[in-house]
Amino acid sequence: MTTQQAGSSTINWKKWIWLFTFYAVLGVFAFIWLVPIVWAISMSFTPNTVLARQIGGLLPTAFTFENYETLMRVSSVPRWFLNSMIVSVGTTLGVLVISSMAGYSLSRINFRGKTFITVFILAGLMVPEQAVFIPLHIMFSEWGMHNTHVALMLPRMAIPLGTFIMMQFFRAIPMDIEEAASIDGANRLTVYLRIMLPLTIPALTTLGIFTFVLSWNDFLWPLVSATRSDMFTITIGLASLQGNFAQSEGLGSLMTSAVVASAPMLLLFLFFQRYIVQAVKTGTRF
Fold first, then answer.
1. Which of 26, 90, 196, 252 could crosslink 48 through cysteines, CB 3.0-4.6 Å?
2. What architecture (CATH level 2) is domain 75-283?
3. Cα–Cα dist 18/13, whole Å
4. Distance CA 279, CA 272 (A)
5. Span 140-155, pLDDT tens digits
């Protein structure tokens, strides 16, 4: 074996050792992250009578579907789940429409006051949401809109970050594409709907996922606006169960509610992770 081959073999061994160490560390962190999830799922399939004696380990000592059957039959969780789904889907659709139209107009159309409007919108990123809770509460109270799905959706549709993301993606698209369509006789609306929007599907998907997650996990505004139990979202409903733990049906039922509430988030990322990666790759071109 020559000196060059020996040096190459040493480099390969160092590379494999570094990769093994890197993935081992990632595996440890992944295991630590998964333990609470596996534990919650395990307790959701364990009878409450067993959990009253001992919590147990990661695997259920006794297996049952009773907690899920009770949840769907007599609990308020399905109603809260439906409220969260209506609010999250409605908010996501509203954000996608508003942000895409605002991003396209601010990045592609020249008009008077464009710079001021852009700065004004982006300045909203510096305003904490808690600072506008009192004005929002007073406004919706005067309109008589509290305890409605609309009141839970409207404040979350004004997301400056969504407009900024869409502006960046529209700016990354070459102007030649839009100019060619205009030469062929396409008007501004046709260019926006049939040419520009399909090119921004990765950005729209990523923005939609982030908006859905933020809306689903939102706690403060639903806590202020939804005061009736039938209008609770899943986050407020689960908090009410935890606050009245002594009167709840048991730890197994509580973990079942948590699993059902978390399932849409996990499924969302499993099915749409390809679009998230694609959007991140596109964003690195800016």
1. 252
2. Orthogonal Bundle (1.10)
3. 9
4. 11
5. 999 988 899 999 999 8
